[in-house]
Structure formats: structure tokens, C-alpha cells
Write a structure and sequence with these properties.
Layout (H helix, E strand, L loop, with lengths): L1 E6 L4 E2 L5 E2 L6 H12 L3 E6 L11 E4 L3 H11 L5 E4 L6 E3 L18 E3 L3 H7 L5 E7 L4 H12 L3 E5 L8 E7 L5 E8 H16 L1
Helix pairs in contact: 1-5, 2-3
Length: 206
């Protein structure tokens, strides 16, 4: 199979120096890419800024902002059989980016934030016969929120995890389908979870 994968965080810049982001390490997405390549799949990895070496054998497209990730994914998706969207994409960005570096004024600073484009929902609208595996990191009402994400983004399944996964070497996940209930659950190192998820994907779609 030819698989599009996303990994790592995105950044939304306040000025040329400061940005909004999150603590995603990219380990889950990179583990998935490495395991998929080892199985003989073709992988296009769209990666936000991380401190990891990309797996050998995959095509890597580095991005920083959510908009850059959206463009890279929309360019790659038509040639792929499916997508595994493990990136931790920023949901908001400043309404205006300041050129240069903002200076201190001694006064409070108010920043207006607007929503970024939804990368996965955009792919979902162009899904056709392709499959989509989303990721949902939820702290409350986890399964309900994962189901809402599955429906809103036209995913086939969603991998549900929690904030303890951020920056961790391990993960504990549930695989949620359209019923809203877990059909599989795995825990262990992110490499082990990646291996189990790809086993399931191969059984379902290969």
C-alpha cells in the first residue's frame, strides 16, 4: 500500500520569533512510518518540527504551520491508498502575524486567535475509496468526542489516546469505530502500538 502519514506538532507564529504549538514529540507517527516501511509499504511522511531522524525508506515532507501541512497532505493524498493522521495539529492561530519581533511595552497584550483549517476534515471530503485513520487525544468524554471526530472528519476509525501520551515513550489506545465503542485496545511502547495498529490496517484493507 501507499500510505500518507502525518506526525509531530505544527506551529502558528505570533511574530518571526514566537509561536503557538504543543509538546508532541512525533514518536507515534514516526514509529508508524518506520513499521510501515519495514513491511514494504510506500510511505509519505508529512512531519512537523520534531527532534527525530525520519525513518529510512520513506518520502518525507517537512512542514511547520498547519497550512503547510494541509497543502502537503492534499498534494500527496490522491496518490495514496489511505492516511494515518497522527500529527498534533494546532487548532488556533493568531489572526495577524507581526513582522519582526514584538517588543515589551509594560502593558498587557491581547492576541486574537482564529481556527486553523482542519487538515483531516479536508482529506475526509476528498476520501472517495481511500481509508482514513484519525487520532484523537481526549481528556474528558473521550469516546463520545472520538466518535464526533470520526463523523466530522469522515474517518473509518479513530485511535483514541489521552494527554499522558504527549512526550512519552509509551501509549495506551483504543480503536473506535462508527459504533463509538472500542473494537481494539493496545498499550505498550509506541513502536508496539504502531505494530498492532498496522496489523489491524493490513487485515482490514490490504
Amino acid at each position: 500500500m501507499r500510505i500518507l502519514m502525518t506526525a509531530g506538532p505544527t506551529r502558528e507564529y505570533l511574530d518571526d520569533v514566537r509561536y503557538l504549538s504543543n509538546a508532541s514529540s512525533g514518536r507515534m507517527g514516526y514509529a508508524l512510518a518506520a513499521d510501515a516501511v519495514a513491511r514494504g509499504h510506500q510511505v509519505i511522511l508529512v512531519s512537523g518540527p520534531v527532534e527525530l531522524a525520519p525513518p529510512k525508506g520513506c518520502e518525507v515532507r517537512f512542514v511547520q504551520t498547519t497550512e503547510e501541512m494541509r497543502i502537503a497532505c492534499e498534494q500527496a493524498f490522491p496518490s495514496c491508498d489511505g492516511v494515518i493522521a497522527a500529527a498534533a495539529v494546532c487548532d488556533y492561530k493568531p489572526s495577524q502575524r507581526v513582522t519582526g519581533k514584538m517588543s515589551k511595552t509594560g502593558e498587557p497584550l491581547t492576541i486574537e486567535l482564529i481556527e486553523t483549517d482542519d487538515v483531516l476534515a479536508g482529506l475526509g471530503r476528498k476520501k472517495n475509496s481511500r481509508w482514513i485513520v484519525g487520532f484523537a487525544l481526549e481528556a474528558t468524554n473521550s469516546r463520545e468526542n472520538a466518535l464526533q471526530k470520526l463523523r466530522a472528519k469522515n474517518c473509518d476509525v479513530v485511535v483514541l489516546n489521552n494527554p499522558s501520551a504527549i512526550g512519552s515513550m509509551t501509549n495506551s489506545v483504543e480503536l473506535i469505530d462508527e459504533s463509538g465503542q472500542p473494537i481494539e485496545s493496545w498499550n505498550g511502547s509506541k513502536e508496539e502500538v504502531a505494530h498492532e495498529l498496522l496489523n489491524w490496517i493490513e487485515q482490514r484493507w490490504k
